Known about the structure:
Four copies of one chain form a homotetramer. By secondary structure, the first copy, chain A, is α/β, with parallel strands linked by helices. Chain A is 30% helix and 20% strand.
Amino acid sequence: MYDYAMAMNNLSVGVLGGSGYTGRELLRLLGAHGGVEVRFATSDSEAGRASGVPGLALSRLEDAAPDAVDLLFLCLPHGESVPWMDRLAGTPVRVVDLTADHRPGSGREDGVVYGLPELAADAVREASAVANPGCYPTGVLLALAPLCRAGLLDASRPVVVNAASGVTGAGRAPRRELLFGEVFGDFRAYGLGNGHRHLLEMRAVLPSLDLLFVPHLLPVARGILETIVLPVSEGVSAEHVRDAWRALYAGSPAVRVHDEGAPSLAEVVGTDVLALGAVDNAGLRAPAVTVVAALDNLGKGAAGQAVQNMNLMLGFEAGRGLRC
Amino acid sequence: MYDYAMAMNNLSVGVLGGSGYTGRELLRLLGAHGGVEVRFATSDSEAGRASGVPGLALSRLEDAAPDAVDLLFLCLPHGESVPWMDRLAGTPVRVVDLTADHRPGSGREDGVVYGLPELAADAVREASAVANPGCYPTGVLLALAPLCRAGLLDASRPVVVNAASGVTGAGRAPRRELLFGEVFGDFRAYGLGNGHRHLLEMRAVLPSLDLLFVPHLLPVARGILETIVLPVSEGVSAEHVRDAWRALYAGSPAVRVHDEGAPSLAEVVGTDVLALGAVDNAGLRAPAVTVVAALDNLGKGAAGQAVQNMNLMLGFEAGRGLRC
Amino acid sequence: MYDYAMAMNNLSVGVLGGSGYTGRELLRLLGAHGGVEVRFATSDSEAGRASGVPGLALSRLEDAAPDAVDLLFLCLPHGESVPWMDRLAGTPVRVVDLTADHRPGSGREDGVVYGLPELAADAVREASAVANPGCYPTGVLLALAPLCRAGLLDASRPVVVNAASGVTGAGRAPRRELLFGEVFGDFRAYGLGNGHRHLLEMRAVLPSLDLLFVPHLLPVARGILETIVLPVSEGVSAEHVRDAWRALYAGSPAVRVHDEGAPSLAEVVGTDVLALGAVDNAGLRAPAVTVVAALDNLGKGAAGQAVQNMNLMLGFEAGRGLRC
Amino acid sequence: MYDYAMAMNNLSVGVLGGSGYTGRELLRLLGAHGGVEVRFATSDSEAGRASGVPGLALSRLEDAAPDAVDLLFLCLPHGESVPWMDRLAGTPVRVVDLTADHRPGSGREDGVVYGLPELAADAVREASAVANPGCYPTGVLLALAPLCRAGLLDASRPVVVNAASGVTGAGRAPRRELLFGEVFGDFRAYGLGNGHRHLLEMRAVLPSLDLLFVPHLLPVARGILETIVLPVSEGVSAEHVRDAWRALYAGSPAVRVHDEGAPSLAEVVGTDVLALGAVDNAGLRAPAVTVVAALDNLGKGAAGQAVQNMNLMLGFEAGRGLRC
């Protein structure tokens, strides 16, 4: 009998950028995955320290062998993935890029599969290179795409997305406005004026919608909650919305649809799940359903989704290594 | 020469309900106000403890003389103001009711002035009884009323209000869902379905608008941030919005209009100020301006506004005793 | 070949008190353990809701069969374990009691094994009833017991223990002083005067030491950090302390000794590990070593340790089901 | 009649370093003080922004006139006060230095008065230059000095000081370990090994004591709580401790002695008060009293104390401009 598990164990991966919040979370997941061997995890600033993978220390980039693994994760600062993607093009090394460099709207998305596993599993399976979606777009797109497909939305009215993210979403590089003394007890909107980079990504994927997006900085470490006011067609209720989600996500380990009410942040922090809820509104002249999407920005919004993509690319079970 | 300050000092007030978050904040403000004497502050559960007013302990209700003050503040649980208001009707004792019992939409608002000082100063000055507005409506109504008057809004489209409040907004009575262990690290929408009591209050004041209101519970002690997506008429910009605010609020000590950008929560926590900002949005098919209103739910959203109303009713300077 | 795993799967457990913080944490661990079947988890107040064990709802006590499991966990309010322990005495049902009712110093510890797995593994293995240690004592006793045995301490001087615990350590019953609005931004000592219940427990186990214990309430949900000033004998250094720990805890999955420096709370939150560090002090007349012990009050301080005890009692591998 | 208040208004001050946490707090206090004119507040990084003093913007250092004020506050990074103090020596400009540069133990304390107003009012009044004490030493020294004087302590045993400070105590310069994402949910000891700079300061002032000092980083923005285990002489109780404090601090606006129990952090955050409490311990072989000192690191621990010193130096009432 062919020992599939053994064969799996021969698969190797590497991580470029292992000391940021996303890289560290990814390494913890990979260390517990059981199906892949992590050959290296680089960090010039923290070389020599523990990587989160048992027995593996962070190493300097020059000591890594990015060309000698089956799959390479790029957890670099935004902008630094481009040369790596170019260098590995045409080689057998497959890439999951967690930066924004090759996402829809970046102008560099050609030849790169946008890795929303629930919407593009077949393409991800075959992809040489995958752009791992942004944290905010993951929730918004998985909430809205099934509703667009099902024709539930009134495209003549805008979709208002209010979102709030924990501070790790802004990265681990020291900046004054991210100091504990600045964020504690505060709450603020940012990227006002509809100009956030993630909005380009959402619009590129769902061009038919008139999206208005207001992100906020939440005084917690992790998690995103997105409150979306859906302009629905006459007669469309929250139950129609849930049905459209269920039709697409039944069997998906990483999406959970609430039968009633809305998820809270605490429900998803530390998991790789996107939780979705929909509620009807009373007393409105223009019909609207309120949708709440909750996910961990480091889980389903980044590292968890990267592992999902890896599972598809390397032939593992969909939910392997995920906290669902 | 008539000693105005001395005469002022003869004015007396009392507080029913001095141990909740609002009552305690009010007592701190009254203790520092300098123009009134606080005769009593009641709390059956904490009688004997310090009241926040130097030299005054909390007392049992039976030891207070609510009929013998110039002005009485009602900081009772919602529902308990009704008998007090009835009892004092026709007496010289004037009342500021901080409960929801006599606000617009309550069905008991007849004969009671709705105390938004910036919009109804003359009526408040003459009022026997004032209903102090809810914390959420204070920000929303002061943001929207001038824009309605100025004809800047497209009434055919809904106004989407996303709001987030610190936990003291839910009161000081012990409830499991307000425990630190439940709220820490969490963020959640509540009152979903457009059924929050405060929405009735807003709609009763601005019936021409189609309001959709989603409140959220924020893991901080104090403060409210409201992000309002305004459906504006063609050609209306954020600068028009600011101009409408400035026209009405110039000279108001408790409203601050940002010349650009939006206020954050930290800017207003511990103050009695409402801060307003407006920002244009790019790339939308239906024109919209994003407004952010920030206030302290215990300051301008409750106790600070009650002091503003008292200042009008008793003839003090508008900003006396306020933290602006 | 004897299928050990299959036999294991026939072992059944039950939980009385499944909706408190400890009960919920325990159910999550048991649900993922893989070696036992959770037959019931009771909660009169939350009957019908999810238990944390896949496929098992919380049930009313009257619908449980506490006498029909191999091992019963008592996660009841303090004081309520006594009748259960009496009722099950002499039956084949083994008990792990997570309340304080049968711990050393309670006056009811006869016939009950004190379940510190690292110090009493053999006794736990054979025990009918185990008293699961308190969260504070777990850290203090595992830190100090090896040092007493090794004769490193100067028993003529007091041992000063300053400890800080997250709020879940105080339970999930609603109390005003545990509201988010009270705890946020605060930090306070409590149980001052050396009268905390947990101190009795520590003294009963280590009567030779003169312990002074000051607990503090920390504004986080989970975790305990204990800073212990050790009065050491002349010539004793932090390295001697670490050696004593290593000698006893080598191979223990749930105790981690730092080679240098001290652990922080974040290192252990969400795990079942106790982390220990020791540091020499400069410039003191009376020699002292500072020890820091960190653990999750719900993990190694409660539910994790209960699973460790279960593993010993039912013959599982020591670290099974633990997050180490 | 000589108009003292008018003369007071002619007094001018300046602040070097107006954008750090301490500088900003100081400017808020000075702006509300009413007795001094703030001529300038410098910040090269934030020049042009609001200073916290109404009508005064932050300016570049080159646009300030440090030699032309009555009193200059130095809120610079540690190490940068030395050249300023040298430059102003012999001029009429008096200096309050909020850095550590000239505190006891720095080696540069000659000719500089250590500004603990409650212990050295006369010296401060006459001083040309005052070293404003560190935040941790302020609480420890004001708690211990009266007890040393009164002979209550057993100097043969060590004094164990556990202290916890909010994050603003570490300054506003961006550092990774102070990011919100790192500190949230964490608690840690630092400066272990009895080597914290502030310990030198305490030891220099109270050389007769054998001090052991363990600071911790608390996940709040502001406030210090110090738990001190006092080795008292036989027969000395908490009431003796309180009496010694009362004897020295009666009439001091900035020190509050609790009649029973201990202060909490929330009681002092946002104030300029040091709150002190003492509690007897039961069941110890070596008698000890537990003392808790609470203060705001930016208030009594820095800016508030600087204003107290200014009040003494310029002849204002002791409590003027303080939040007591």
